[in-house]
Amino acid sequence: MRLLLVEDDAMIGEAVLQVLRAEHYAVDWVRDGVMADAALRSEQYDLVLLDLGLPKRDGLDVLRALRARRASVPVLVATARDAVGDRIAGLDAGADDYVVKPYDIDELLARIRALLRRSAGRGEPVFEHKGVSLNPATREATVHGQPVSLSAREWAVLEPLLARPGAVLSRAQLEEKLFSWKDDVSSNAVEVYIHGVRKKLGNDFIQTVRGLGYVVPKE
């Protein structure tokens, strides 16, 4: 799961970033409304954790612009604006949930999980190919009906490939699924997780296309 954290407070942002990564989410962190809008226009996220009191562009404006594009990504507003009118404004602008600072981190994680479950229930597909099945809603993987355990990052490289059999994805495209912006990415990270998937699903399930990337063959 890839999340966008929009938070201008450095201490809060760093703390939340570490907690989310410890929960195996890939997280991009931006610190103002302009960067948030740019990220939401160029990237795909499973959830947005959005502060409202942002420099350069207010969080409500970012949220309204997102919903004007008919984007359905879940948005959890996390802000110090605690007046009833502020909550109503946030929800009316398109927020799916609203939590007031200072919030309990366990409650924040629970709200994130609830929104992700709800989002997955909107008809998210189960990916099936050659006896391998991935269910994003339940995070269950099976091979010919038998459960198989995948790490969060093994799942991250397998899901986009299994979603589009026959499509070649470059290493850079798969790295985006593994790591957040500004993370240091080792030169062989993708290869390591592809190797882990192959050990569990078979050496030929994901094939290397020399000079281009990786593919799950259609046939």
Automatic annotation (TrEMBL):
<dbReference type="GO" id="GO:0000976">
    <property type="term" value="F:transcription cis-regulatory region binding"/>
</dbReference>
<dbReference type="InterPro" id="IPR039420">
    <property type="entry name" value="WalR-like"/>
</dbReference>
<feature type="modified residue" description="4-aspartylphosphate">
    <location>
        <position position="51"/>
    </location>
</feature>
<dbReference type="GO" id="GO:0000156">
    <property type="term" value="F:phosphorelay response regulator activity"/>
</dbReference>
<dbReference type="InterPro" id="IPR001867">
    <property type="entry name" value="OmpR/PhoB-type_DNA-bd"/>
</dbReference>
<protein>
    <submittedName>
        <fullName>Two component transcriptional regulator, winged helix family</fullName>
    </submittedName>
</protein>
<keyword id="KW-0902">Two-component regulatory system</keyword>
<feature type="domain" description="OmpR/PhoB-type">
    <location>
        <begin position="124"/>
        <end position="218"/>
    </location>
</feature>
<dbReference type="InterPro" id="IPR036388">
    <property type="entry name" value="WH-like_DNA-bd_sf"/>
</dbReference>
<feature type="domain" description="Response regulatory">
    <location>
        <begin position="2"/>
        <end position="116"/>
    </location>
</feature>
<dbReference type="InterPro" id="IPR011006">
    <property type="entry name" value="CheY-like_superfamily"/>
</dbReference>
<dbReference type="GO" id="GO:0006355">
    <property type="term" value="P:regulation of DNA-templated transcription"/>
</dbReference>
<dbReference type="GO" id="GO:0032993">
    <property type="term" value="C:protein-DNA complex"/>
</dbReference>
<dbReference type="Pfam" id="PF00486">
    <property type="entry name" value="Trans_reg_C"/>
</dbReference>
<dbReference type="GO" id="GO:0005829">
    <property type="term" value="C:cytosol"/>
</dbReference>
<keyword id="KW-0597">Phosphoprotein</keyword>
<keyword id="KW-0805">Transcription regulation</keyword>
<dbReference type="Pfam" id="PF00072">
    <property type="entry name" value="Response_reg"/>
</dbReference>
<dbReference type="InterPro" id="IPR001789">
    <property type="entry name" value="Sig_transdc_resp-reg_receiver"/>
</dbReference>
<feature type="DNA-binding region" description="OmpR/PhoB-type">
    <location>
        <begin position="124"/>
        <end position="218"/>
    </location>
</feature>
<keyword id="KW-0804">Transcription</keyword>
<keyword id="KW-0238">DNA-binding</keyword>
